Amino acid sequence: MKTIPSILLAAALSIALPATLFAVDKAPPKKDAKSATPPKSTEAVETEAPAKMSGPPPAMGTLQGFVGSWTGTMHVYAGPMGPESTGPSKVTFRSTLGGMHLEGDHQFEAGGSPAAGRSLWGWDPDRKQYQCVWIDGSTSAIYLYTGTANGDSAVVLTRTTMVKTKAVTEVLTFRLDSKDQYTLALTSDASGAMKPILEEKGTREGAGSKPGQ
Q1: Which range (106-115, 116-125, 181-190) has the least confidence?
Q2: What is the pTM of this model?
Q3: With helix as H, strand as E and coil as C, how does 139-161 read?
Q4: DSSP code for 84
């Protein structure tokens, strides 16, 4: 993928796009395996959920409306990813692993060239939060967004990283505007104020078509 934060999930999730903002130029120094000690987790929580869930949690119902194939456009605002641009996008969301997760396959344009990304959505029953993992072809890094529902047809997720000595927060909003329309928007405060990075509008394939078309 060309440089374009996918989502996409750059979904558009698309949403992809975050990867280009915080790509690392070189690998961290290796440590002696004998002297290395495992890092302490800063996100440890007490587990309340059973080892195996009997079925998808009710919270996953918020994401089920996105299942299907969608076509639309992705608008990238002028910024770290390059000049302002608009291009076509195509996304397929599938319910996977018995409905425990939502999986997204994202195709879009970045700087006029084809690009692709993948998203995986789920619900953490211990932390009581939605989670989205985003990957794309611009980097080997994996991006994790976490957050909550906004009503019964939208989720708002965030991701905060340290860029040099500054904390930068991205906000990913994934909203079902109607049963056949959705919006995915990514904003960032990298410039000092929260500003839009990209917005994707998707329409369900076949929506509004006449019988037989």
Answers
A1: 106-115
A2: 0.75
A3: CCCCEEEEEEECCCCEEEEEEEE
A4: -
Helix (H) or strand (E) holding 21, with range, is helix 17-21
pLDDT of residue 201: 96
> How big is the CA angle at 67 (ends 209 and 50), to the nearest 5 degrees?
165
| Angle at the Cα of 196 from the Cα atoms of 195 and 200, rounded to 5 degrees | 170
- Residue 82 DSSP one-character state: B
Please name the residues in contact with 161: beta carbons below 8 A apart, sequence gap of 6 or more: 22, 167, 168
Q: Is residue 172 within 8 Å of 132, Cβ to Cβ?
A: yes
Cα separation, 15 vs 198, whole angstroms: 9
In sequence order, the β-bridge partners of residue 83 are none
Please state the rounded mean pLDDT for residues 69-95. Answer: 90
Six token digits for residue 33: 């395996």
Q: Provide the 10 A C-beta neighbour count for residue 116.
A: 19
142, pLDDT greater than 90: yes
Q: Are 141 and 120 in contact (CB under 8 A)?
A: no
